[in-house]
Amino acid sequence: MIVARLAQFGKLGGFHFNDSKYGDDDLDSGSINPFQLFLVFNELADAAQRDGAAFQPAYMLDQSHNVTDPIESLMNSAVEVQRAYVQSALVDRARLAELQGANDVLLAAQALKTAFRTDVSPILAMARARAGGAVDPVACYRASGYRDRAASARPAKPGAGSSGIV
């Protein structure tokens, strides 16, 4: 609702993608509530369609890595943001507008859930492969050995409480 209202009044300048359970947790995007992430993208897609080139918000990942590898978490978030974006592109906007105009909340919600429940993993994998990227970014990252090389190059400082890369 907040995204929709800010976009409606031309006040959405930027958006931080993360998830939370207890306040501003800065968890990986889509890790707690992927449907909410999809709904945010639905509103962003709606605003982009409505406002065209005038709609130019900045998109950012905002996360705090207390337990997970920060690079892997960012990769996971990027994949989930891409997933929500592609799912939002599947929404039948004309049908949704018709249902919203008729105040048919139940069928409008079903129209959104149809797009959300669509497995877009094959589309994402194909797009990454076509662009020369890794189909499974985290597996590719782990296989590369980058973390071990970076940790060797940047050893942890005594008393810092981290491994040097985090």
Describe the structure.
- α2 links the parallel β1 (14-17) and β2 (58-61).
- The model has no long low-confidence stretch (mean pLDDT 87).
- α1 runs parallel beside α2 (34-51), α2 packs across α3 (70-89) and α3 (70-89) packs across α5 (105-117).
- The radius of gyration is 19 Å and the shape is elongated.
- It has 8 helices and 2 strands, in the order αβαβαααααα.
- It is mainly α and 166 residues long.
- Helices cover 56% and strands 5% of the residues.
- The protein has helices at 2-8, 34-51, 70-89, 93-101, 105-117, 121-130, 137-144, 146-153; strands at residues 14-17, 58-61.
- The chain starts with a helix and ends in a 13-residue tail after the last helix.
- It has one domain.
Topology summary:
Elements (H helix, E strand, L loop, with lengths): L1 H7 L5 E4 L16 H18 L6 E4 L8 H20 L3 H9 L3 H13 L3 H10 L6 H8 L1 H8 L13
Parallel strand pairs: 1-2
